[in-house]
Amino acid sequence: MPGGLYPNAGFRAPLLSYLLSAFYFLKLKVLINFIMPLIGALSVIILYLLGKEIFNKKVGLISSLIFAFIPLHVFYSGRILTDVLFTFFVLLTFLSFWKGDEKGNKNQRILFGIFLALALLSRYTALWIIPVFFIYLLIKNKSFKFLKERNLWISILAFFITLTPWLVYGILEYGNPLGAFIHGAKAAAYWGGTQGWTFFFSHWWNMFSIIGFIFSGAIIWIFYKKEYPKKKIYLLLIWFSFFLIMAIFMPHKEERFLLAIVPPVSLISGYFIDKFKSKTILIILSVILILFVSLATNFYNTSSLYHNTNTECFKEITLKLQEFQGNFMMVSENPPLFRDLIKQESAYYPDTLNEKTLEEMTNETSKKGYFIFTKFNSGFETEKWKNLKVIMDEKYTLEFECQKDPEVNWIYSAN
After folding, report:
1. Of 22, 24, 293, 362, which sits 20 to 30 A from 199 (CA to CA)?
2. CB burial class (10 A; 0-12, 13-18, 19+) of residue 251?
3. Following DSSP, what letter does each residue of 283-344 receive, concatenated?
4. Are 73 and 40 in contact (CB under 8 A)?
5. pLDDT tens-digit map of 27-41
C-alpha cells in the first residue's frame, strides 16, 4: 500500500479477490475474463425469479429484459470490479428475504442471512442494504414486535456465522472484529476526489438510458394511483431510496456505485410497463431498441477512451519492461497491474513524493529499481507528476520514453 499509510488490506471487501485467486491457483486464468459476464447473466435470471415472486411471471420477464439491457449493468458486467458480484448477492438476498418473510420458509430465512453476509463480503456498501429490511418490517408490522420473531434471529445468526472468518481477521489485524469495515469507511477518502450531490443525476441517462425516464414516470404513477401502500411496492421504493441517499452522501462517487439499485429500477419500470396491457409489447420493443442504441453509443465512447495515445504508450512501456534482464523492482501508481504483466517486484510511489522518499525506496532494496509513469489510469494531479518528472531528470537515468507523449510516459532507473 502507498507509503505504508494503510498497510492492512481489509479496507477492500475480500470475496471477489478470493474467488479470482482460486482460478489463478487452479491455473485457470484464461477463464477469469468470463467470470463477471457469467455473474451478470445469472443476475438477470435471479431478477426474473424475484419479479415473478413479488409480482408475476410477466412482470418478471419484462423486468429481466430491462435489466439485461440497462447500460450500467451491461457495461460493468464486462469489468472485473466488485459491483456485479455485489449486486448478484443483493438480488439473492432480496429473493430469499421475500420467500422467507411471505412464505415463512425457514430455509429461506437462513439463506437470507448467508446471502446478506456474502453481499457484505463482496462490497461493504451492503451495510446500506441492511436498514432497508428493518424499515420494511417496521412499516409492515407497524411496531417493533418483529424483533421478537425467532426466524429473524435465525437470519441474524446465519449472517454472523458466515462473517466469522472476516471478524476473526479484524481481531488479528486490527484488534477489533469490525476493524476491516471501519478501515473500509476511512478508505473512501484515500483517492478519487469528491463529487457533488448532483453527480448521479447528471449521469442518469448514461447509466439508465430511457429506463431512467420510464422509472421516473412509474414513481409519479405509483403515487398518483396510491400503489405505494402495497408491500411489494414500498419494499422496492425503500431499497431504491435508501441506497441512493447513502450513495449521494458519499464524498467520492462513481456510476458503478449505483449498480445495486438497477434491480428495483428494473422491477418498478417493468411493473409500470405491464399496466399498459395491449401496448406492452410495442413499448418493450421500443425500449429495447433505445437501450441497444444507448449501449452501442456507450461502447463506442469507451472504445475511443481506451484506444488512444495513453493506452498505446502504456503498451510500449510494458514491452520495454519485459526486455529488462534479471530481478528488479518497479515503482509506479499501479503496482498490481505491472506485477501481473511483468512478474517482478512492484511498489507504489510514496505518499510524500520528494527526492528523499524516492531515495529511501531505492536504498531499501538490493535490486535495480525502475521508476515508471504512464498517463494511463493515472490519478496524479498535474503538479504532482510534473514535480516527479523534475526529480527524475535531475537524479535518475532515463531508460525509455514514449515518443507519442514523452512528458507523461517514461521509465527511469536507479542503482
Report:
1. 293
2. exposed
3. HHHHHHHHHHHHHHHHHHHHHHHHSSHHHHHHHHHHHHHHH--S-EEEEES-HHHHHHHH-S
4. yes
5. 888 888 899 999 999
Mean pLDDT score across all residues of the chain: 91
C-alpha cell at position 205: 441517462
Query: Per the structure block, which three cell numbers stand in for 236?
Result: 422496492
| Sequential DSSP letters for 218-272 | HHHHHHHTT-TTSHHHHHHHHHHHHHHHHHHHSSS--GGGGGGGHHHHHHHHHHH
Q: Return the C-alpha cell found at 300.
A: 463506442
At a CB cut-off of 8 Å and minimum separation 6, what does 372 contact? 317, 321, 330, 331, 332, 338, 410, 411
Q: How far is CA 390 from CA 79, 95, 232, 349, 394, in A?
A: 35, 57, 61, 15, 6
C-alpha cell at 10: 481489509
Is the predicted pLDDT of residue 303 greater than 80, yes or no?
no
Q: Which residues, at least 6 apart from 27, have a Cβ–Cβ distance to it below 8 Å? A: none
**Rg of the Cα trace of the chain?**
24
Please write the tens of the pLDDT for every residue from 151-206.
Answer: 999 999 999 999 999 999 989 888 888 888 888 877 766 666 688 999 999 999 99
Quick one: pLDDT band at residue 3, thresholds 50, 70, 90? very low
